[in-house]
Design goal:
Elements (H helix, E strand, L loop, with lengths): L2 E9 L3 H12 L4 E5 L6 H6 L4 E2 L8 E2 H13 L4 E4 L3 E6 L5 E5 L4 E9 L44 H6 L1
Parallel strand pairs: 1-2, 1-8, 2-5
Antiparallel strand pairs: 3-4, 6-7, 7-8
The structure holds flavin-adenine dinucleotide.
The site of flavin-adenine dinucleotide has 29 residues, from helix 1, strand 2, helix 2 and helix 4.
Length: 167
């Protein structure tokens, strides 16, 4: 178990959390940012890193991956602690009015404030009713990079935005 002590804990390292961490740094706060995913960027990194985005102020067009990289560079200027691959699970307050947040990895963060930028929540794939034994061996729920699929016959299961993007 690791203990951390910061002014501010940001829960969720999606675009909003990354920008929030940047701004907390501008205001001189020490900041930690936690995400259940192993990389920053939230939905953008997990679901559409290769998609072009056209509605970000200041960018007429930007690829998802490049937007996240820019947000990360901006946030990192103030050296937040990144606690990735762990979920914020419990919140307690102490008699001094500070918060203690416990994570799925057993870490504990002592902080003066918590900002929740959790978007639509932690990502857990809607699992296929069959085929779990192939997970990581041909069955994937996220496609961070299309390169490994070059030359392969791929079946995309689903009919939402992401499925159409990847198809
Ligand atoms: C396929 C697709 C295409 C899109 N295209 C566009 C577009 O072109 N333009 C546009 O403006 N928007 C688009 N969006 C919407 C956009 O991605 C979201 O509005 C944006 O990602 C929200 O950012 P966020 O930081 O609020 O949350 P999210 O990106 O959802 O990030 C929240 C993060 O919080 C983490 N989290 C939540 N709870 C916890 C917890 N308890 N502990 C630890 N971590 C936690 C999650 O794992 C996640 O990484 C699209 C969305 C999808 C799905």
């Amino acid at each position: 178990m690791t203990g951390h002590k910061v002014d501010l804990l940001v829960v969720g390292a999606g675009p909003v959390g990354l920008y929030g961490a940047y701004y907390a740094g501008v205001r001189g706060l020490s900041t930690a940012i936690i995400d259940s995913l192993s990389e920053v960027g939230g939905q953008v990194s997990a679901l559409y890193p290769e998609k072009m985005i056209f509605d970000i102020a200041g960018y007429p067009a930007v690829k998802g991956r490049d937007l996240v990289e820019a947000l990360l560079t901006q946030a990192s200027a103030h050296r937040p602690q990144f606690l990735l691959g762990q979920e914020a699970q419990n919140l307690r307050t102490d008699s001094a009015g500070r918060f203690q947040v416990e994570t799925s990895s057993g870490d504990s963060i002592d902080c003066g404030a918590v900002v929740v930028t959790g978007g639509i929540g932690t990502f857990t794939p809607r699992q296929l009713p069959a085929g779990e034994i192939y997970l990581g061996r041909g069955l994937d729920y996220f496609v961070p990079d299309p390169a490994p699929y070059t030359g392969a016959d791929v079946v995309v299961v689903g009919g939402g935005d992401s499925a159409l993007d990847w198809a």
